[in-house]
Design brief:
This protein is mainly α. The chain is about 50% helix and about 10% strand. The chain has a domain of about 80 residues: lambda repressor-like DNA-binding domains (434 Repressor (Amino-terminal Domain), Orthogonal Bundle). It contains 6 helices and 3 strands, in the order βββαααααα.
Length: about 110
């Protein structure tokens, strides 16, 4: 079953596998921190926003919005970023999901 937004007129709900679920909004502070960490990753990989956008299959403008905390990356974006990270020996060995998502654990100082 596909995800249906705005089910029954409820702006912040979705239908997933026949259940109505509340969508939790991420704080501005969290989005800014996540965007900053993703920018650090991109910088360590020596990629500009256009190159990163091509690698993960999104627009350069979306990368910009994510990096400044104005938009949340999708799960697909995060998985594709992690795939790009896995191709770099240093990052593969020294970067954890905890650091990417929460700023905790093994990561890049930046």
């Amino acid at each position: 079953m596909s995800i249906i937004k705005s089910l029954y007129g409820k702006k912040d709900s979705i239908l997933l596998y026949g259940k109505v679920m509340k969508i939790q909004k991420l704080s501005e502070e969290y989005l800014e921190g996540l965007g900053h960490r993703l920018k650090i990753i991109r910088t360590v990989l020596k990629l500009d926003q256009r190159q990163m956008s091509e690698l993960i299959g999104t627009a350069q403008s979306q990368i910009s919005k994510i990096e400044i905390g104005k938009s949340a990356p999708t799960l697909y974006h995060l998985l594709m970023i992690k795939k790009v990270v896995e191709e770099d020996d240093y990052l593969r060995d020294n970067l954890s999901w905890d650091w990417i998502l929460e700023g905790r654990g093994r990561g890049i100082v930046g």
